[in-house]
Design brief:
The complex is a heterodimer. Chain A is α/β, with parallel strands linked by helices. Helices cover about 35% and strands about 30% of the residues of chain A. In chain A, α2 packs across α3. The longest helix of chain A is centred in the middle third of the chain and has 16 residues. Chain A is globular, with a radius of gyration of 23 Å. By secondary structure, chain B is α/β, with parallel strands linked by helices. Chain B starts with a helix and ends with a helix. The chains are: A alpha/beta, B alpha/beta. Chains A and B meet through α2 of A and α1, α8 and α17 of B.
Chain lengths: ~300, ~425
Amino acid sequence: MLEVKNARMLYGDLVAVDRLSFTIKPGDIFGLLGTNGAGKTTTFRMIMGLLEPTEGEVLYEGQHVGYHNVNEIGYMIEERSLLTKVTVKELMLYFGQLKDMEPKVILERLDYWLDRFGITEYKNKKIKELSKGNQQKIQFISAIINNPKLLVLDEPFSGLDPINTNLFVEVIRDFQKQGAMVVFSSHQLDHVESFCEELIVLEKGKVIIEGRIEQVKKDFKKQNIKIKGDVDAEALKQIPGVFQVIENVDQTIVKIENDDVAASVFDYVKTCKNITKYDVEQASLSEIFIAKVGKSHEEV
Amino acid sequence: MKKFKFLVKYGLLKRIARKSFIIANLVIAILSILIINLPAIIELFGGNDDQMTDLQIDIINDIGATTLATDLENQFNLGLPSPFFMVDEIVSLDLDTFWADEETDMLITFEGTLNDPVITVYSKYPDMNAGIMNQVELQLISYQLGGAYERPLFNTVMAPDYEDPEAGMMVGSISSLLILPLFILVTMATQFVGVDIIEEKSTKAIETIIASVPANTHFLSKIVAAIFFVIIQGALILFYGVLASLVAKLFQSAPMINLPQGEGSLLDYLGQILPNWPILLLMTILFIVVGTLFYLVVAALFASMAVTQEDYQQFQSPLMLMLLGGFYIGIFAPMAGGEGFMKIMAFVPIFAPMVAPVAMAGGSMTILQGVIALIVLIAFLAVMVYFASPVYKVAILNYDQTKFFKRVGDNFKKAFHRSKKTE
């Protein structure tokens, strides 16, 4: 179990992370979201023991994270962090042995992962000769080569195409099935929504959203109603509790303040013709994020 | 400890198990052999044009030995395949003309009587004085046979602008022998440490590495690997020197570094010019080891604060200035007669590793003073490690790219703010 207890990190007067607490149990996939500079990387560095919290503590299996238990942790940083002048094999032998692994075991596992990611031909190629996507795969392999019980992934899907993203997701799910704890950050909120059960959203070091995703969505009262048919946008806007109406080519999206407004909208829709669709949906994570953080999704 | 050993081994192999290391060492070995055998090589291509073909000696004979000039010429050339010494008798002494004259190389005046001679040798080639005087003495003994032998009284007069080349060469040789290899090795080692650290930092691989091993272990492993590299490279350079000397012996050539004739070995020679050479050698080795460690700590510290390769060029400037400062003081201070200045600089830790051994070998510093300078250097190294270790821990993961002094200051502040908190 990973426990972050009331962790606070100060850089001089700057509060990078302010009293952050969460717990991750074996088999959990935990998302850490936030805008740039929100404190995600600082949190990851605290989890890895690279930074000591100014206040509070980070415990892994009841112990402070340190070099005595680091061999059970896999870490992938946001930017590519690979030695570019060495070959894939040399790099894995280097990183693997820093995790106290035997060279034979490293090479066996490397062969397995290269095969799984479909890049066996790159084993003896220098890192700088690989494409960005393949470098990302190598970096991911370096994080999982030690079969970690805790996997810390900072922006693992950055720069990946959808096929490779799915490949990563499958591997992460495999680790989840084996009982590993996964904590990751991503700017792609659809990924967070699709496979993470619990999350925290940070803004300027403070927690602004936290909890299980379904609960977060439930707690966020605003909902979307998707309608196909002959509806009048102006009439919809007049309904109390409707705060936005978006007219798309194939449907109209009505954004409402809370569940109660849905009945009023439905009463209006019943008076309209050619209605083929009427769906009330919870707000997406992206909408919740924008609403809470107050910035555009692109900035995230 | 296992990870530390692995990092040292990895760092060392990264340098020596490379084509560039092998090629560089092949070049050094070939150059060593060529340089030491340069006279033989020059001779092979037509010889040295400046080589002396004869030696003109004028004598002023006031002792009445009628065949003195002829007898001396025969005596000097005895056993030579062709005459080298030309001896002529002249009547008067004009020193100004003699020193300015390019034809005559030596002027010998014989005064007093045959049984009680006073001989003065005016010489432009002091190296030959001893041999000439021996031959003259032998000739005079042959004249004195049958009478009571009186050893002649010899005076030697050098040219007014004469400087003892042996003394100059001695100091120059000691300075070069001690400083040049040290300077080259330390520069290589600091580059090795700096480039290694900055490569890992600029590619951000350092985050993955520091996530697996403590920053202090990483810091020390780089320094230890570099020290091993220095030892291996130093031993190889020494080996190339020995190899070059063996080649010189094999071809019977006169090597560039000549031992005086009659000396049995290098150690015999060292024993004559530096009677306390064993302790001097020990002190020099200690200065090299402690000094290299000191420079490596500084190199690692500055490299940890740099973010990119370009950045590192700026950050290594203070270190290069220290190294060059020590190098120039060690090389030029003895030649310029700045023994006092050199002695003071030998106590300054940033210059001591290069200056102190030369100061001791040159006699401007006693062994006791050398020991004090070494203790000062060790103390300074301990202080450096004490300060550098926490700063390295902070700086190695810091990607701040502010100006040099601000960045150095910020890293120190953060490091000691953190240390206080940990306490």
